[in-house]
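Structure (tokenized):
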């Protein structure tokens, strides 16, 4: 058994003190590994950089000989020793859905960030003892034993069980088929818990019905509500952490976003937590777990999470189509779609993470993956004359590959079995190829009486000049440039700063406001790395986007397929 003690002395310094106590079982050498990455984000994270000090002691408090053998692995000599205690501290000062954070108000831990495991003994019981104020409550998917310790039957379960300890959490729950779903909300806010529970229950019922069973005994939504704008969620075996802000309007103006991200994360309970690619069964926390199936893990989940909201009645047609239009916008504003397939983009997340990387290099396993699943779903519906859908594929994955994991061929073969030639072409042309999506999307949407309508980009800099900028540290920085646009053919480059427009210095103004009425030639003052230049840009039309619109007159068959699609 592995026993962890979490404590701290100065919460405002953000250092968590961790003691790991383990019996040697007669071993002469113990190897301790800190995870190099976390499930849900397929990139190396190097959590060990947050450890300030690390020591090992025997049962009598005498320091043992230890050595670091890799960036996140240590060896301890323990010949003749019965028990080893490793003491270290972890700097927890990042508040997002996948990190750990400590301050005067809460202890929030993702164990995968900061819990060592003993190599070769990952399947033993792991316990967590918390030295926290008496009035703190603990929100976590792990069970609590009679000693008050959080308990996990393996390191994998521990790594998958984030927890929040605080005296200010709000709480509600709801029941679906005898399973309790817990809502834990940390942060100053005033949520309508009745509304939240009602809507969450509706889409939960829909998801459970799709798979038949929930693979866990209970489920925990852990919310971190912040005073600043943010949007992030991470899935776990029987829980999720949702980071949302800002506090003032998160449960009002951004309520649809809360529903969207929470439905997405709950769907992960089946897709990627229960149903996994063979490459990740089990997880190897010490190195990259390469897979081209990110488009299934995130693409299917992005699409189905939104579809479940529509099918459950939580979203109306307008709300659902808005989510699909957002995916379309992300797709058509990313010229990386011409250079790397969505399957290979998922594989390369281990190379350059989830950032944009170099200009126009790759696509999104979320947005592009979701669009491919939209097409596959509709082609399956048409091919089966409304008898089947993508639901059937996911249910088969759950029923047939739960214990073994699935391969790329397994998923593709199931989709083609239900959807025929058109689905096969989606895989060859779009999932593993870089052919333009437009005609395939038009064909798919026609099945349910929708049109794919080309329209001007609402962002003036994108539409008129072919670039997209964001504000970083009060500077307007160019982040995307469309190939062969007027911006691309000028001296402008990604990471350049816009200083002035038509000689007027930009001070706290939005680029969109300054450019919305622009016609003809516009002079931009651009700060490059080593010099500043004036560039004359002629207005044109670039970065077009596409939106879904209902056809005015749909046939009876189209309406029937539309009903099947959205229940």
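Design, position by position:
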């Amino acid at each position: 058994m592995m026993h962890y003690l979490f404590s701290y002395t100065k919460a405002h310094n953000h250092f968590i003190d961790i003691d790991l106590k383990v019996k040697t079982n007669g071993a002469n050498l113990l190897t301790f590994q800190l995870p190099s990455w976390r499930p849900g984000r397929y990139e190396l994270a190097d959590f060990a950089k947050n450890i300030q000090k690390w020591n090992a002691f025997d049962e009598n408090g005498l320091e043992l000989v230890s050595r670091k053998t890799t960036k996140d692995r240590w060896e301890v000599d323990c010949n003749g020793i019965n028990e080893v205690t490793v003491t270290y501290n972890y700097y927890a000062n990042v508040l997002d859905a996948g990190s750990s954070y400590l301050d005067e108000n809460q202890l929030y831990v993702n164990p995968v960030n900061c819990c060592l495991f003993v190599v070769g003994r990952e399947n033993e019981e792991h316990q967590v003892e918390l030295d926290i104020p008496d009035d703190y409550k603990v929100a976590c998917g792990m069970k609590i034993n009679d000693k008050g310790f959080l308990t996990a039957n393996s390191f994998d379960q521990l790594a998958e069980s984030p927890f929040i300890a605080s005296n200010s959490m709000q709480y509600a729950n709801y029941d679906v088929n005898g399973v309790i779903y817990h809502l834990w909300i940390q942060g100053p806010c005033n949520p309508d818990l009745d509304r939240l529970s009602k809507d969450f229950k509706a889409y939960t019922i829909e998801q459970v019905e799709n798979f038949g069973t929930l693979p866990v005994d209970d489920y925990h939504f852990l919310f971190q509500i912040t005073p600043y704008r943010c949007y992030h969620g991470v899935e776990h075996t029987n829980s999720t952490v949702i980071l949302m802000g800002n506090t003032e309007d998160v449960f009002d103006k951004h309520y649809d976003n809360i529903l969207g991200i929470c439905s997405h994360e709950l769907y992960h309970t089946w897709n990627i937590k229960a149903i996994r690619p063979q490459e990740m069964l089990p997880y190897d926390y010490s190195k990259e777990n390469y897979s081209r199936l990110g488009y299934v893990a995130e693409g299917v989940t992005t699409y189905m999470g939104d579809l479940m909201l529509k099918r459950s009645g939580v979203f109306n047609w307008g709300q659902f189509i808005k989510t699909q239009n957002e995916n379309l916008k992300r797709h058509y504003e990313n010229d990386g779609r011409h250079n790397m397939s969505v399957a290979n983009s998922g594989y390369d997340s281990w190379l350059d993470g989830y950032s944009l990387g170099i200009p126009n290099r790759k696509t999104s396993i979320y947005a592009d993956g979701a669009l491919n699943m939209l097409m596959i779903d509709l082609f399956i519906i048409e091919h089966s004359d409304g008898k089947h859908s993508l639901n059937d594929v996911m249910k088969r994955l759950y029923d047939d590959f739960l214990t073994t994991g699935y391969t790329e061929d397994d998923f593709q073969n199931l989709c083609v079995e239900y959807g025929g030639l058109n689905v096969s072409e989606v895989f060859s042309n779009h999932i593993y190829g870089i052919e333009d999506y437009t005609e395939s999307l038009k064909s798919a949407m026609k099945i349910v009486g929708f049109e794919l309508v080309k329209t001007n980009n609402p962002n003036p800099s994108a539409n008129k000049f072919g670039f997209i900028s964001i504000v970083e540290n009060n500077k307007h920085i160019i982040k995307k440039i469309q190939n062969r646009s007027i911006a691309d053919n000028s001296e402008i480059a990604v990471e350049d700063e816009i200083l002035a427009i038509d000689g007027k210095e930009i001070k706290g103004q939005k680029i969109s406001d300054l450019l919305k009425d622009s016609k003809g030639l516009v002079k931009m003052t651009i700060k490059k790395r080593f010099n500043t230049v004036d560039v004359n840009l002629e207005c044109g039309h670039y970065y077009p986007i596409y939106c879904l619109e209902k056809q005015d007159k749909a046939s009876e068959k189209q309406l029937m397929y539309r009903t099947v699609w959205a229940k």
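Reviewer-requested clarification: Residues 14 and 102 are 5 Å apart (CA to CA). The chain has a mean pLDDT of 96.
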